[in-house]
């Protein structure tokens, strides 16, 4: 199908994922005009939230740019499991990369995983040049 059709199916697709993983969480934000346009889309699967405390205490937050007809940015958080394998935690697809959207991602991640950054066992690595060190503490819930 077309890119337009694929984006329209996101809600349906993730509703189907929820049938298999009842703890799957997603939030979609679109423009309010007639032709709705995706502005940001946050999701995580249930298993990372359940097993988060078993992972190593390092969370890496990074981004990559989406290429093709519809440009955007994918923000992702990952951790390392006890066997040294990468364990994906949460994701956000957004139409552009801004400090506001990074802040939204960090707040959503922190509130959904019930994280406190003042706990010494959490080490955060954020690869984003516009966030100051203290901005990371916005997700303290």
From TrEMBL:
It comes from Kingdonia uniflora. This is MULE transposase domain-containing protein. InterPro entries: MULE_transposase_dom. Residues 58-107 form the MULE transposase domain.
């Amino acid at each position: 199908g077309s890119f337009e059709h694929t984006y329209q199916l996101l809600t349906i697709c993730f509703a189907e994922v929820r049938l298999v993983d009842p703890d799957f969480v997603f939030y979609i934000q679109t423009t309010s005009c007639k032709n709705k346009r995706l502005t940001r889309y946050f999701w995580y699967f249930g298993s990372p939230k359940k097993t988060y405390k078993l992972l190593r205490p390092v969370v890496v937050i990074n981004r990559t740019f989406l290429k093709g007809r519809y440009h955007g940015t994918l923000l992702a958080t990952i951790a390392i499991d006890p066997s040294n394998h990468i364990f994906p935690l949460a994701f956000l697809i957004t139409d552009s990369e801004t400090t506001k959207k990074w802040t939204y991602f960090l707040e959503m991640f922190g509130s959904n995983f019930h994280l406190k950054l003042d706990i010494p066992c959490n080490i955060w690595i954020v690869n984003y040049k516009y966030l100051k060190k203290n901005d990371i503490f916005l997700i303290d819930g």
